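Re-run with default settings, no changes from the original entry. Doing this only to confirm the output is reproducible before filing.
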Amino acid sequence: MNNNMRNKGRSAIYMMAGFYLIYMAYQVFKNRAESAGGEYIAVMAGAAAFFLIGAGMMGFSWYLFYKTGKEMHEALEQKKRESEEMQKEEEKLDISENA
């Protein structure tokens, strides 16, 4: 498995985990009325923490997707340039051999 595939898999896992944490934050926030006093504050802090960590994981996942895509695009362009250079060198060799 190459590095790009590993990075894509890792970012997909981060995306799913971030989505799950945001879902959990919603579930905790939805049930906040069942708590009171200090427990209410702890529940709200937990919901906020789940949401922030989940959003951060999803943001990091998008960054990894972008970074991996950019690296793949640059590698393809480099390969294309090298192929064009080799074709030009072969044409020069063909011309010099025919002359």
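Residues 3-98 form one domain. The two ends are 48 Å apart (CA to CA).
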